[in-house]
Amino acid sequence: MIAKLKGLLDEIGEDWAIVDVQGVGYLVHCSAKTLIALGEVGEACTVHTDLQVSENDMRLLGFAESAERDWFRLLTTVQGVGSKVALAILSALSFDELRNACAGGDAATVARANGVGPKLASRIVNELKDKAGALPGEAGGVSFGAVSAAGSASADAVSALENLGFKPAVAAQAVARAQAELGEDAAEGDLIRVALKKAAG
Fold first, then answer.
1. Would you say 38 and 12 are in contact if contact means Cβ atoms under 8 Å apart?
2. Which residues partner with 27 through β-bridges?
3. Which of 39, 151, 170, 193 has its CA 20 to 30 A from that of 4?
């Protein structure tokens, strides 16, 4: 099984990236957080992977760190949670939010993710409440934590770009690049202004 890729980030899309490993391009499906953490096209990157094989499909999932892969594997043990839904949950919630939601039976928080209705959210928190505590909390690294902090300037900037019609992954990546340029203490308005230029470019 393919467990990790090290190579150059060749291309990036809404929920996927292509990693060039010595001339072979691997298509990996990723959460918005991982797409941000991978960096710029052309840069070296490392992706932890999980290979899913079904009757008519073979899909490689990519994660910026092994902790996110652990959460992905746990989420997909729940009936009705496939790879697409699991990535949507990991895109919408930080590890701490997810762990606290499962521990506290907070289905409403999990239901914030695209494609997760109230019934599925309830099943997720009920099935994982005794398992989630063993998994890591907030991920390390500026690019993972910065955009996921609810109520932060970066999170509000991402929301603003999404309201303007940008896809979540594009908005998150543009804001992450703007924050890297302006610094951690950048105001929301400045982040939006710079992120708009980067998203449009």
1. yes
2. 18
3. 170
For 21, the token pair is 């490993």
What is the Cα–Cα distance from 195 to 161, expressed in whole angstroms? 8
Residue count (the chain): 201
**β-pair partners for 28:** 17
> How would DSSP label each residue in 59-82?
EEEEESSHHHHHHHHHHTTSTT--
Hunting for tokens 């994982």 — which residue is that?
Answer: 128
* Residue-wise pLDDT tens digits, 103-130: 888 999 999 888 899 999 999 999 998 8
Tell me how far apart the alpha carbons of residues 59 and 56 are, in angstroms, rounded to a whole number: 10
Number of CB atoms found within 10 A of residue 135's CB: 17
Q: Please choose, from the candidates 63, 12, 32, the residue with its C-alpha nearest in 3D space to the C-alpha of residue 162.
A: 32
The answer to whether the predicted template modeling score (pTM) of the entire model surpasses 0.85 is no
- State the CB neighbour count (10 A cutoff) for residue 14: 11
**Is 6 in a helix, a strand, or coil?**
strand
In 13-151 the beta strands, taken as DSSP E runs, fall at 16-21, 24-29, 44-53, 58-63
